[in-house]
Amino acid sequence: MQIYYFLGIGGIGMSALARYYHRLGYKVSGYDHAETSLTKELISEGIEVHYDDNPDKIPQNPNLVIYTPAVPKETKEFQHIIQKQFPLKKRSEVLGEITRRKTCIAVAGSHGKTTVSTLIAHLLNESRLGCNALLGGISKNFNSNILVNPESPYVVVEADEFDRSFLQLYPYYTVITSADPDHLDIYENHGKILEAFSTFANQTQQEGTLFIKRGIPLTINDSIRYFTYSFDDVSSDFYVWNVRVYKGSYFFDLRHPNGTLFDLKLNYPGLHNIENSVAAIAVAMQCGLEEAEIRKGLQTFAGVKRRFDYRIKTPDFIYIDDYAHHPKEIEMCIKSVRNLYPSKRITGVFQPHLYSRTRDFADEFARALELLDEVILLDIYPAREQPIKGIDSKFLLTKINKMDKYLATKEQLTDLLKALNPEVLLTLGAGDIDKLVASIEKEFS
């Protein structure tokens, strides 16, 4: 039996790989620094997970150790693995190997990739073609971040730009949703980000197809076949027309190079998710899905946990939780909520993610958060970083030009929310803010 060990098994991408190999019959175990709902799920599925940095808990002779760059190299277990010279690969390398055995559909972007990849996987999974998938979020339709279907030729993956990991992939179908500035600790400036995304785009296989959001300034080789898509830019190959809302669902027409799909129905909220649907449908059409399959899959898509995730929805109170941690994501989320609830007061709780990102995009974060009626900032979630002098949530708060703005600890949050009595509440962030969701639900249910 193959024995695979994971350093950082609790990460969303790492857990997908762990589940994938576990489903294939491998003996899978791993380490992470903290217990989460995701690690509890892994344990319930028969995967061993521990939380103390203890080399004695590493299997004697693993066939492969898979690690994520989020795990510090100083970790005792990491050092032990190096010393013992166990076979060692980054998550992105392993993902690249898996995708080379299938027709790979890879979705990249500074935002939007989780929803688009999950929707593509759902459309294929609901069709006669089937699908394998390793995703960066938990699909509400199959309550997991993986699909395993040995009969299907397709595998859908997220292509992560962090640490240039996506350059390990050579997809048949490539989707690029966005290429906004992010991870400047890796890339230094926006120009280098665009260079990396251009390189990734040009790794699309010669027989394959690239789908790129209209307006992203990438350099594409003449040999690459590509289509553009957008929400409503009529110069795109795929775009939306005639959007309307009826009984809480979106209806729209989709223009494509060969005609129009009329009266498509999407039950997943958020105007940005209509654009995400355009990208997913474009890929599905290239894969050969029939119109009836596309309609059924789109209408039954339940979304992704922590992506415009309704937690409470009553006439008097709305609570939505979202993973948004980039200024553009926050802006899109708030604008979508405002579109749905134009007359209600919107209160947002944001947990900044990374000191470097907060420093690099402080002004952009401030402008996005000003779209809220009331802003609450939690402490910065450091993830893999050490503190940066002068960079904290108070620093960000001073840049927000609003009267109704607050700093709060996690312990103070519930009392502050009760005092503010919001009509629409958003919790936003990629750190551990999700651990507060259950207590907020309990307080306002």
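Second entry:
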Amino acid sequence: MQSFTPLASNMACLDPIRVLMVEDDPDDVYLTMDALRASRLRLNLDVVSDGVEAIQYLRANHDRRPDLILLDLNLPRMDGREVLTVIKEDPVLNAIPVVVLTTSKAEEDIAASYRKHANCYVSKPVNIEEFRTVLASIESFWFSIVRLPTEVARRADG
């Protein structure tokens, strides 16, 4: 597992936002880390490279559950479709938002992901600048506009 925490100027949030990226392509991991370096938010990015690792990570880190999961569909050992099913059928994990971030543009993959309760489906652009733009949009939407379940839980706890 890799971890990455970019420097951030905005300290309004006491706890950093936790993102789990499930991705086996080192280039996509690098591009994601590069895009997050410009983040104005406090983010911790943990990366696992296959579906089995993802499930192990989620079940082992009760006190460090991610606020958001970026999930590729095409993974070794257990593909993203199976990971999505496990997450959304688990009453402890199913509130974690899952963004399917994958190269597949197949209509069946899109439809199946939503049937399995993915929170959104994003096809990875091939162009590096477009990839950065997509990640910035994901960051803006999920961490500036949306109220996350973990945010509500933190406020309730104290």
